[in-house]
Amino acid sequence: MRPLVTVRAKNFRSLRDVEVELQPLNVLVGPNASGKSNFLDLIAFLGDAVHEHLRPAIERRGGFEHVAFRGGARQTQARTVEITVEAIVTRYASDKARDAYTLRFSEGKVLRRPSGRAMAVLRRDEEFRFKRTQGSGRRLTINGTKFTVYDTSKDTPRKGKQKSENLLQKESLGLSTLPRLAPERGGEQVGKIADLFSTFRVFDVDVPAARLPSALDRGEKLQPDAGNLAAFLHELSRDADLFRDLEDDARAMIPGLERIHFRPVGGAEEAVAVELEERALRGRTSLADASYGSIRALALLAMIYDPAPPRLTCVEEIDHGLHPYVFDRLVERLRDASSRTQFLVVTHSPALVNRLRASELIICERNQETGETLIPAADPEEVRKIEKKLAGKMGLGELWFSGTLGGTP
Fold it and tell me: What are the ATPase AAA-type core domain coordinates in residue numbering (predicted)?
C-alpha cells in the first residue's frame, strides 16, 4: 500500500527544503538530531490540524517560532511554512493523476485582543487537486475565508467565489471543514485526503502499560502505546488462522515461548490478562513478569497483524529491545503488513538495515552549517546502483555504517 506518494516541505522545523518519494515500507536512518523525527512529525502535524485546527496544532509544538525553520542567517521577512503531499486515496486517483494537497502558513503582525492578550495574526492558504470523475479534475483553493472551486480542464472558476462564512473560519483548515461539502462539490474527495492524516498512528510502546490486563471492550483497535495489548491480542485470537501465525512469529522472537494464554480478570468491567507458557518452566508467566523485549515483540506483532490498521503507521526505534537475530523475520512481516498500512519506521541498527532493499531505505543528515535536514541525503537511485554492483558482498547496513552512504555522525 502506498497512499502517501510524495512529501515536500519548506521551512517546517529543520526541513528547510525537502522532497521525499515514499514506498509501502520506508525506513529512516541517520544520526541523532538529523531530522528523522521532524519528518514524521510533519505527518502528525497535519493530523493534529485536522482534529484541532491549525493554531492549536502549532501551539502544541511550542508556537510558530518552534515550528518554522530557525537555521541559517536571521531572516527579516516573515517565514512561510509550506507542506505539499501527493497521494493516491480518492476513487479516480492514479500514479499519473495523483491527489495533491498544499498548506502554506505564516505569522503576521501582532494584535492585542480585548482581553489584553497579544496574538500574532496567522495567515494560511490551502489548495486541493483531485479527479472528481473519470474526466476532468478539480482544484479547490482557500485563502482566508474565501473558497473557490475550479474545473482544471478549463482553469476558470466553476461557480465563482463561494460564500464561505458558514464553511470556513480564518484558522480552520479546509482539511477539517470541506469534507462537509456535497459530493458534487468535492467533499468526498477532501474527506479521503483528510482521513489519510487524521487516522495516522504513531506506534510507541509503553511497556509498563502494555503489561497490564485490559478491558475487553477496549480491544477493537490497538492503541498507539499498546496500552490495551491484552484485549487486542484476545480480539485477534478469535481468528484462529491469524493467531496461529502470530504465535509462530512470537515463538521465533521470544526464546522458550510455547503458547499465549488469556486469563479472565474480575472487577467492575470484564477484562483479560495475557500469560505466557514457556518451555521448561512450571506454570505460566504473566506479562507483568515478562521481559522488556518480550513485551516489545508482542506489541509489534499485534501492530503487524492488525487486520484493520490506519493507512499510515509510524514506529520510532522499531529495533529497540529486540535481538538482531529476529530482524529477518521482522522485516519480512513488515513487508507483508505494508499491503494494509504504509510504514514510516526509524532505526539506528545497521543489522536491521542489512535486511532492507535500497528502495526501502531513506538516509537523513543535518547540514551543520545551515541547520537544515537533508532527506534523502543519498540519491536512492545511486544507492540501488551500489547495491547491485556489490551483489550481496556487503549489506546496506554495513555501507551505511561505514559512512559510504552518508547519514552518520
Answer: 25-354
